[in-house]
Amino acid sequence: MRIKQNSGFTLLEVLVAVLLFSFVFLLFGAFFINSFTISTKQDSEVVAINLARQIAEQWKIGNECVNTGLDPNLITCKEQKINNRDYYPVVFLQDYPPIKLITVNIYSSSERISSNLLSTITLAED
Questions:
Q1: Taking a C-beta distance cutoff of 8 angstroms, is the pair 77, 51 a contact?
Q2: What is the pLDDT of residues 31-67, one digit of tens each?
Q3: Is the dihedral of CA 10, 16, 19, 20 positive or negative?
Q4: CB within 8 Å of 16: residues ≥ 6 apart
Q5: What is the pTM of this model?
Q6: How far apart (Å, rounded) are the C-alpha atoms in residues 105 and 98?
Q7: Coil, strand, or helix at residue 44?
Q8: Is the Cβ–Cβ distance between 109 and 81 less than 8 Å?
Q9: What is each CA distance from 77 to 1, 24, 41, 96, 104, in whole angstroms?
Q10: Which residues of 19-53 are buried (b: 16+ CB within 10 A; e: fewer)?
């Protein structure tokens, strides 16, 4: 009597291997998509922080923003387009003699609500 040697894979083994590979591939795909989303958000926040610092320093040198007239301490600056994204800076001045506080808020849309706030920086000026 001769013993038959199995030298291949059964259909069930192939299906299980494909299913496991697909599951692992989907997990890695979701991880990479999530990482890309977080990286893009952090990139926008870094740009907003640098823009806020730049505007605060420019404000100390000379005003380049426009007062809206509604509040003398609230100044809206021209929107900035960086990396195909719009940033809306707002400067808020607080005067505590002899110190003046300059607060720059950067929003991600023209609607200045807290959910659109990307960055805030405050500088003191003598």
A1: no
A2: 999 998 898 888 888 888 888 888 888 877 776 666 6
A3: negative
A4: none
A5: 0.67
A6: 23
A7: helix
A8: no
A9: 92, 48, 22, 23, 10
A10: eeeeeeeeeeeeeeeeeeeeeeeeebeebbbebbe
